[in-house]
Amino acid sequence: MPRVRLRIPRLAALALAVLCLAACEVGVVQTAIANPTPDAAPPPPASCAPPVCERLDVQIGDFAIVPARITASAPRVQLAITNVGAYTHSLEVRTPGGTLQSPRIGPNQTGYLEADLAPGEYEALDPTLGHAVRGARATIVIAP
C-alpha cells in the first residue's frame, strides 16, 4: 500500500506566515490619513519686501511639497502655501525654538505662514496624520 504524506503542517505554516505579514502591513506600513476641516482662508498678510523679507511660493499636495528644497536669503520669510491636492493640508516648520504652523488649507486655497529664521536648514512637513510619512516633507534653507 502506497504511503500518503500529509502536507497540512506545511500549508498551516504558510497560511500563518501570510497572516502575520498581512497583519504587519496593516499595523506598520498602512497609516491612517486624516482630512481635517480647513480653517477660514485669511487674507494675505501685509507686504513682504526685500531685503528684509522674502516671499516664497510653495505648493502642497497629496503627498508632496514642491519645491522639496526651499531657499531664501532674507531673515524673514513669507510662505504662500497653495494646496494643489484633494485633502486639507498644513505646513509646519520645525525650528530649535519650537514649531511654526500654517492654518489648515483646503483644496485650491492659499494660506500663509510668516517666520523669522536664522541662517541654517529647517525641516518642513505636513503635520496632518499620515501625510508626512507619505512624502509631504521639505527642507527650508536660509542662506547667511
CATH architecture of the domain at 53-142: Sandwich
Structural class: alpha+beta
DSSP strand content: 35-45%
**Low-confidence spans: pLDDT under 50, at least 5 residues?**
21-29
What count of helical segments does DSSP give?
1
CATH C-level class of the domain at 53-142 is Mainly Beta
- Work out the helicity level: 10-25%
- Tell me the name of the CATH homologous superfamily of the domain at 53-142: Cupredoxins -  blue copper proteins
- The main sheet orders its strands as 3-9-8-5-6
Order of helices and strands: HEEEEEEEEE
Give the radius of gyration. Answer: 23 Å
CATH topology of the domain at 53-142: Immunoglobulin-like
Mean pLDDT: 85
Shape: elongated
User: Whole-Å distance between the termini?
Assistant: 87 Å
How many strand units?
Answer: 9
What is the makeup of the main sheet? 5 strands, mixed
